[in-house]
Design brief:
- This is Diguanylate cyclase (GGDEF) domain-containing protein.
- It is found in: Cell membrane.
- It comes from Acetoanaerobium noterae.
- Helix 5 packs parallel to helix 7.
- 48% of the residues lie in helices and 18% in strands.
- It is an alpha/beta fold and 277 residues long.
- The chain binds ligand C2E and calcium ion (3 copies).
- The site of one calcium ion (CA) has 4 residues, from loops.
């Protein structure tokens, strides 16, 4: 970076102060985004691999902001986590997702569940279970229709603490999925301890499965372990019929991905739900 002729340090300092300025601008924008109602959720169906019936819809955060609308959402989440905004944003996501799902149920669009991604920063807070309870109470959604997605990496950080929180969540009646499974290199046997309902196979394995026998072996191992644990399996990132058919043969229970549907705004998904028999 510091190599633009002269001593180069001016350029270097300029680059740093530009970065700091951008950080400050982004911080400012994110801190106001909730209030300005710039966040919204999109929804992606998770379907039964044999009946194609929608079992759940995963809520995914989106942010429309003049200057930052195009930032990839993992960057936004990471920034919100680092700056301490994720708790408030996450609580809003939880409430909004529950509200929307209950509205669909009340409209007679089927008794699907809603899957909500939970950041490690939310899960670690002592009042997290209370916040889940509040989101359920405010929306009147029955707990069995709320599924919390916790990444493998999150679950493995301070394992005992996470285990205790998960047990409380289970007592509340909500469902738990382990997201991005297979990427954390944790011992598979560890997961027999967790009170989980679903393992979600990370999309990187699904993407590679038809060309890479290692990816296929990993998927096969995860599915077999899940069967032994009596845990359901969702494959994410399913983009083609070929992937789906192979996964069906391998015993996968649920799939999610562009082959079924991209994440959609609520009203678009509603149209889809209304067309279903
Ligand atoms: P994730 O939870 O693993 O979500 C799945 C991501 O894969 C989504 O990206 C989705 O749009 C994308 N996807 C779905 N189907 C396909 C497919 O067939 N092929 C490919 N290549 N991709 C597919 P998105 O929405 O950009 O989210 C990225 C990540 O950001 C999420 O990964 C999750 O870790 C995080 N995230 C998104 N929304 C939230 C949220 O509300 N809260 C938290 N804490 N994290 C969120
Ligand atoms: Ca997820
Ligand atoms: Ca209530
Ligand atoms: Ca995932």
């Amino acid at each position: 970076v510091k190599n633009s002729g002269g001593n180069g340090y001016e350029f270097y300092n300029e680059a740093i102060s530009k970065m700091i300025k951008e950080e400050e601008e982004l911080d400012d924008a994110i801190s106001k985004a909730l209030e300005k109602e710039e966040f919204y959720l999109v929804y992606q169906p998770i379907v039964d691999i044999t009946t194609s019936e929608i079992i759940s819809n995963e809520a995914l955060l989106r942010w429309d902001n003049e200057s930052y609308g195009r930032l990839p959402i993992p960057v936004v989440i990471e920034f919100a986590e680092r700056k301490g905004y994720i708790e408030d944003i996450g609580f809003w996501i939880l409430k909004e997702a529950c509200r929307q799902n209950k509205a669909w149920q009340d409209e007679g669009l089927g008794l699907t569940a809603i899957s909500v991604n939970i950041s490690v920063h939310q899960l670690e807070k002592p009042d997290f279970v209370d916040k889940v309870k509040i989101a359920l109470e405010l929306s009147n959604l029955a707990p069995e229709y709320l599924e919390l997605e916790i990444t493998e990496t999150t679950a493995m950080e301070n394992v005992n603490e996470k285990l205790a929180t998960m047990l409380k969540l289970k007592r509340l009646g909500v469902k738990i999925s382990i997201d991005d499974f297979g990427t954390g290199y944790s011992s598979l046997s560890y997961f027999t301890k967790f009170p989980i309902d679903t393992l979600k196979i990370d999309k990187s394995f699904v993407r590679d499965m038809l060309e890479d026998s290692n990816a296929m072996t990993i998927i096969d191992t995860i599915i077999n372990m899940a069967k032994a644990m009596d845990v359901a399996i969702t494959a994410e990132g399913v983009e083609t019929l070929e992937h789906m058919e192979k996964l069906k043969i391998m015993g996968c229970d649920k799939i999610q991905g562009y082959y079924i549907s991209k994440p959609q705004k609520a009203y678009v998904l509603e149209q889809m739900l209304k067309k279903l028999p």
